Amino acid sequence: MILLKTKEEVELIRASAQLVGKALAEVGKHVCPGVTTAFLDKIGEQFIRDNGGIPLCKGYEGFPSAFCISVNDVVVHGIPSEKVFLNEGDNVSVDCVIELNGYVGDSAYTFTVGEVSAEMQRLLKVTKESLYLGLDRCKEGNRVGDIGNAVQQHCEKNGYSVVRELCGHGVGFKMHESPNVPNYGVPGTGALLKEGMVIAVEPMICMGSKNVKFSQEDGWTCRTKDGKPAAHFEHTVAITKNGPDILSTFEFIENKQ
Ligand code: MF3
Ligand code: CO
Fold this sequence. Notes:
CATH architecture: Alpha-Beta Complex
Bound molecules: 2-amino-4-trifluoromethylsulfanyl-butyric acid, cobalt (II) ion
Largest sheet: 5 strands, antiparallel
């Protein structure tokens, strides 16, 4: 069942999603060659708790950390580790879900580590563009397939592929609500978007082929099968009659406020 949110509830989700944006920026400040993903997680978790938030990934179906931190060929759900050091030229996706005052926001950003190749930069640029093209479709009367189609068209046109195993989702009262929001699809199909719906749109895009595998050891880490890099950007958005109301933000990362 798709749970609709009142205007007041949307504002509470916005507050949580804004804190996610600040937490991602705080982690981003520490992204540089030589740091471990465990260090980034520790910094970020402290920031969330200092601001009255609860990091919801920690303990979610046994996930051990506050953030999913995914380097290069790790698409999503990377477990922060003392053994994973960032290197110049890497990309690192940082994904964070916070509960604040009982409401949940979810957002992710892929950072670059030092100087990265032009092709890595293009992957990140196209993936982020596809997120905003998907968000543009988040309008009452459209359907979930319109969002996925916009993401898919843009990424495939640019020679990239869309992960099929994982999707965006409803969010706000809990981390994962209905509907599923795939990053591929056919326009005019799927769940109807209505004012009051809040969803997380999160393209997971591969430089090479779309096939992924999940780690046998930890059950979480999702990697590209071909070992090529992937990127991931995510926003929490409220559907309105006039279009998307993007509740999370990258402004703290990109404007360094
Ligand atoms: N932000 C992720 C999502 O969009 C996090 C879920 S994985 C978790 O669904 F288990 F770590 F929480
Ligand atoms: Co999500």
